[in-house]
Amino acid sequence: MSQNSAGRLTTPLIREGKTHRPTSWEEALDCVASRLRQQIEKHGPHAFGMFSCSKTTNELNYVAQKFVRAVIGCNNIDSCNRT
């Protein structure tokens, strides 16, 4: 799908039941953060894992690992840098 396609999403959506409703970026990010917090409280931080890409920059991989370790509270990150 091209970036100029009529079917392209232009606003974030939040699922409510079986439907989705348009929302602001602020509300969408608050929703993601809230649900992530709920899952960490329910299952613990070690239920979370992140894959990063070995083809991205070192800086982005650094930010990803800092997020997982400092914000989530676990070491479950893999950037597949085994060559």
Topology:
Elements: E1 13-16, E2 19-22, H1 25-43, E3 50-51, H2 58-72, E4 77-78
Parallel strand pairs: 3-4
Antiparallel strand pairs: 1-2
Structure description:
The protein is of the alpha+beta class and 83 residues long. It has two helices and four strands; from the N terminus they run E-E-H-E-H-E. The protein has helices spanning 25-43, 58-72; strands at residues 13-16, 19-22, 50-51, 77-78. The protein has a two-stranded antiparallel ribbon. The radius of gyration is 16 Å and the shape is flat. The model has no long low-confidence stretch (mean pLDDT 90).
Keywords:
83 residues, two-stranded antiparallel ribbon, 4 strands
Helix content: 40-55%
Structural class: alpha+beta
| Strand arrangement, major sheet | 1-2
Largest sheet: 2 strands, antiparallel
- Low-pLDDT segments, ≥5 res: none
Task: Compose a concise summary of this entry.
With 83 residues, the chain is of the alpha+beta class. It has two helices and four strands. The strands form two sheets. It has a two-stranded antiparallel ribbon. A two-stranded parallel sheet has the order 3-4.
